Amino acid sequence: MSVVTRFAPSPTGMLHLGGARTALFNWLYARHHGGTFRLRLEDTDRKRSTPEAIAAIVNGLTWLGLEWDGEIVRQSERRQRHAEVAHELLAAGGAYRCYCTPEELETMRAEARAAGLAALYDGRWRDRDPAEAPPGIDPVIRFRAPQEGETTISDLVQRDITIDNTALDDMVLLRADGTPTYMLSVVVDDHDMGITHAIRGDDHLTNAFRQTQLFRALGWEPPAYAHIPLIHGSDGAKLSKRHGAVAVGAYAELGILPAAMRNALLRLGWSHGDDEIIDTAQAIAWFDLDAVNRGAARFDMEKLQSLNGHYIRESADSVLLIDLEQRLAARHPAAATDEGRRRIAALLPEAKARAKTLVELADNLAFLFRDPRDAMTPKAHRLLNGLSLETQAHLGALAYMLEELAEWDEAELERFVRAFAEGEGIGLGKIAQPLRAALTGSHASPGIFAVMVALGREETVARLNAVGILASGR
Ligand code: GLU
Predict the structure, then answer these.
(1) How far apart are CA 187 and CA 220, in angstroms?
(2) What is the mean pLDDT, run by run of 10 residues, along the chain of 474 residues?
(3) Would you call 241 a catalytic residue per the annotation?
(4) Under 8 Å CB-to-CB from 66, ≥6 apart: which residues?
(5) Which of 92, 124, 149, 233 is the most exposed place for a label (fewest CB within 10 A)?
(6) pTM for this structure?
(7) Distance 182 CA to ligand 1 centre (A)
(8) Ligand 1 centroid from CA 224, angstroms
(9) Is there an atom of ligand 1 within 6 Å of 8 CB?
(10) 10 CB near ligand 1 (under 6 Å)
């Protein structure tokens, strides 16, 4: 039997981390078993389902690289089929019409609550003759749920869980207006789509019992269920905005790479020994449900960032360049020119070793496109203002020679500046620190020689001049 999984979000908000992890696990499970991964939008709640939410899901999955197989199924377009199934079950005696008024149901619930019982429907129309139906009431169709015995689900994560059938009442399948309920729709869709494994959040665990009963009443086999634990923040509390971004889309903006996000989501509740860095090919090869933990998983932003640093270092420069050019050009249009791209590319190999996000990487490279005097750190400022006359003279002489230097590459610049410092009997730092401050506006930056190459000779000399380091021959 070929594996068919599905991600079945209700498009009522953003794609959050929990949903993304559910999608990832279904995708990995399908890919691991050479099966199929389907996407089904559970958009039956017309008021709450929005085009924006659908776009967030589609874009989020696409960004994450979790491509689905076949067409997207929209649950709302299958209403007719859902209703047909309810009517078939009705004809076969597995469901019945219930003519309770809303007031009657309310009284029933209030009485149950007063008696300290669960507010279940008491089955009063289960065996009653429809001829007794009060006039003017449109009936709902309820499932004739088994009242005796037990229902067991063999959950692939939570193991066997059994409930007494008296704990569940006869749920509504079709509302009085003929629209199908969520519970009916899920069962019919899972069946019709040939879903073999339903991997989802454990907030759906109780639904699994009702769905299993309905599957059986319809003569169908339920999928294997795998209910995965909730995600908590690093402090152990249920994940919320307080722990940082919850929407997947926000991580793209923060400069997280999809590969890092996949790795971090994978580690939320799934483990393979002590491995932290697990790339997608490895994840597909290893993923199975027996290694899903039963306890709540903890999401840790710092861990995500450190994974992201790894994936940035592993990324090809050509891939990073496209992203960086866009990020930088939003603030500095010059970044999107040939010269801009050349500058970024020149410094990228070094800069990418030290950034944890693409935002940080772009920030670290922004000096390539702005006047350092506009964003001088206080330390760099103090340094340049406090230069001794002697250092000023050294820098002036150096600037003069730089203008004349035959080659403008990193090795040559390093050799030359070192030789100059040695010749003057001063440490390299005496020269390199003010150079760095003048060229970048900061005291901490990539290697000074790489910076000079990235800026080019003309810009280097212009920046030195701009802070009063004027070429002077001796
Ligand atoms: N639509 C449900 C949700 O978004 C998922 C239902 C399911 O996976 O069975 O939580």
Answers:
(1) 9
(2) 96 93 98 98 90 96 98 97 98 97 92 89 94 93 97 95 96 97 97 98 95 98 96 86 84 96 96 95 96 90 96 97 97 97 96 96 96 94 93 92 92 95 93 95 88 96 91 70
(3) yes
(4) 7, 23, 24, 27, 37
(5) 149
(6) 0.92
(7) 9
(8) 15
(9) yes
(10) yes
